[in-house]
Amino acid sequence: MANYFQKDIETASRDQIRAWQDERLVAQVKYVYDNVPYYRNRMENKGVRPEDIHSVEDLHKLPFLTKDDLREAYPYGLLARPLGDCVRIHSTSGTTGRRVVAFYTQHDLDLWADCCARAIVAAGGTKEDVVHVCYGYGLFTGGSGLDAGSHRLGSMTLPMSSGNTERQIQFMTDLGSTILCCTPSYAAYLAESIHERGMQDQLKLKAGIFGAEAWTEEMRQEIESSLGIKAYDIYGLTEISGPGVAFECSEQSGMHINEDHFIAEVIDPNTGEVLPDGEKGELVFSSITKEAFPLLRYRTRDICVLSREKCACGRTHVKMTKPLGRSDDMLIVKGVNVFPSQIETVLINQGFQANYQIIVTRDKAHQDRIEVQVELTPFMVADDTFDRAQATKKLVAGLKAMLGILADVKLVEPKTIERSEGKAVRVIDKRSLYKG
Ligand code: DLL
Description:
By secondary structure, the protein is an alpha/beta fold. Helices cover 31% and strands 22% of the residues. The chain has helices spanning 7-10, 14-35, 37-45, 67-72, 106-122, 141-153, 165-174, 184-196, 217-227, 340-349, 378-382, 388-403, and strands at residues 88-91, 101-104, 130-133, 156-159, 179-182, 207-211, 230-237, 242-248, 255-257, 262-267, 281-287, 298-304, 306-307, 319-320, 325-326, 331-333, 336-338, 356-362, 368-375, 408-412, 427-429. β6 (207-211), α9 (217-227) and β7 (230-237) form a beta-alpha-beta unit. It binds 5'-O-[hydroxy(phenylacetyl)phosphoryl]adenosine. The site of 5'-O-[hydroxy(phenylacetyl)phosphoryl]adenosine (DLL) has 23 residues, from α6, β7, β8 and β12.
């Protein structure tokens, strides 16, 4: 195919898409039941057998899977293939404690590359493009995913990985990068650094593919005007493969979900009831073509709305809005998944109590900052030998080791953090990222 727009698949009729999904789901349920004891038990507990699943209509009969299930089954409990058939692992962007590991066969990597190639094509990419990938490479899926998509498309790939802004800009200008792939906050930072150096006229960029964290329309406009590009959103999660589960097209109004590989549902996060298109709820995915790590009804905790309205780009696959929030307490700070409970663990381990508040802000240059305010205990205040500077330093180091990112720490006097009568307000996220 000339430019890797997979027309037969991406513009297939709704009936055709449904037929693919029905057939693949039935086969996948049987495959998972036969090969994953953990999942078979879950199905049996719910009284469902593979014979009960005849089509997508029956999907609701299957149990949900959650991140906690994945942690419980860590590392191999959800693997559907012998380890010898697997060729890669990736892991979610949180660091210690809450790792989730996903496995891939070569077939899984191939279909993931297809999904990312579709995303690059939807952003206007062709084999003539120079695709500058500064998502992190390694356990994180961002770098490898877009890299594979670019290879699949036949464009020139610059596998830059993250960091070293000086070198990013030099390669970008010397080698004429045309498509930039990174987190939106890094794109904003790069744009600012390029302007500081007065190098904007040397850019050949035409598009950016930005995801892995929430970003607003305002941020899109700012990045588009400062880099002179079109900025497209891309969505995905490690558990379901990585980036490219869904991507924006020329319309820039929601992301098409690759429905030949993933069935999307939106549910009420409290009751688990499936909601009709157009209603806001938690996104749930079933991967119907994966071999090594095929998850059925995986609860993403991302809140969004699905729409099957006709898209002017010609693609017929369902569109999801940008994530509009989360149904759990996970934060994404500097592109890294952070749970308040991880922070609490560090505080308790260092002799503090669970009286703390996490304040997340984003500065003018769109860079995230996280500050943890921690109450001193009365015992610490009474102790003349207690060294506040030293304790702060130790907390910063402990948080860095736990989260993988740098957090500011501010020690405050006992009883100064407001107590709540209900659920404690642990997080004040001032970024207002989820405006749709
Ligand atoms: O962030 C995969 C990815 C890499 C997506 C590069 C796009 C680009 P995880 O580290 O497993 O995987 O984090 C997944 O990140 O459940 C969302 O909450 C959030 N997320 C991903 N893409 C977007 C986006 C990668 N475009 C979690 N907008 C998901 C908002 C996003 N949030």
